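Request: Show me your protein:
***
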Amino acid sequence: MPEIPAASEITGWLARWREGDEQARDRLFAIAHPHLRELAARLLQRERRDHTLEPNAVVNELCVRLLGGLPLTFQDRAHFLAIAAQTMRRILIDHARARVAGKRGGVQHRVPLSAVDGWDAAVPSEDLMDLDTQLSALAAADPRAARVVELRFFGGLGEAEVAAVLDVSVITVKRDWKAARAWLAARLQPGAPA
């Protein structure tokens, strides 16, 4: 994955953006674009072959959503990537829902969770909308564990970055990741109770 600049450099651009410097915002998105595009490409590789979204479209929609709404206050590089991950998740879910709604019960498409580093789910692939539903259920039971999954799976963040975003230790992230994987795997198996 393309390297995103150092945390201090990103944090500086974010601070200048908060102060109203649109050039800092534009520079941030220009530098982050290759990283975000690679992340979107990895997420889309898990989609069906005839998926209509392309990585650049996902990143463009991400930029529209991040820049088009109320001003966001990003704390640092990890927080910026966490918000980007959460927004990409919403983009993919919105797209999947629109497609299913348009087909009125059309075939739901699978996302291979086994492609995620460290994911040992018993079932090799799961439906993206089902994953979103189960991730929301996990968030009700254990919000931090759900956030760990979101940041690792949708955001591509490493354990240390997730720990920084959540302000917890790396060992806590590892523990939450392991528990969340087991929780989701049990609920995403065919025939598992909803």
The two ends are 35 Å apart (CA to CA). The chain has a mean pLDDT of 75. The longest helix spans residues 77-103. The first strand starts at residue 110 and ends at 111.
